[in-house]
Amino acid sequence: MRVARLLAASLALVMLTSGCTSESSLGGAVAELQKDTQRLEGNSIFKNPLKKLRIVQRPDKDIRCDKDKFKRSLRATADYERVDEPLDVHLDRAQTLMENTLAQVLGYKLEFDFSQMETEEGRFIYGVKKDPDITVTVYVAPEAPTWRLHAVTACLSR
């Protein structure tokens, strides 16, 4: 029993001194979310004025979510003008464009929901970054603005 306690204490000490803890820091998550904002604004697709990218909430203010823990949030909208095409084709194109942007430009791992295929009411895209812990949800709407993005960090200590 004494050996187990000694090993556990040693392991905890090694993790603390090496900076390896099981919880990410808010600072690292905030830095990544701010980079995501810059990448979105600098992306060739969203730089196009026709996309009407609007950053509704920048990740520059702490949001208290627990005692001594905070999170940051990014909210953005953009539009994908519908040309003379059926609504489901328009939603397919808008969804694919946003999925590619999230995965290839912003580095999110996407969770695919095949039950939404062919729906005309709108679609949700879900993605995560594990390190740092950030989740993103995008609603692809049949009306303007087409994309409604919300990315948020986990509830973390400063």
Labels describing this entry:
4 helices, six-stranded antiparallel beta sheet, alpha+beta, two-stranded antiparallel ribbon, 158 residues
Number of strands: 8
Strand order of the largest sheet: 1-4-8-7-6-5
Q: What is the arithmetic mean of pLDDT?
A: 86
Question: For the CA atoms, what is the radius of gyration?
Answer: 20 Å
- Low-confidence sequence ranges: 1-22
Distance between the termini: 35 Å
The main β sheet shows up as: 6 strands, antiparallel
Fraction of residues in β-strands: 25-35%
Count of helical segments? 4
The best one-word shape is globular
Order of helices and strands: HHHEEEEHEEEE
Secondary-structure-based class equals alpha+beta
**Proportion in helices:** 25-40%
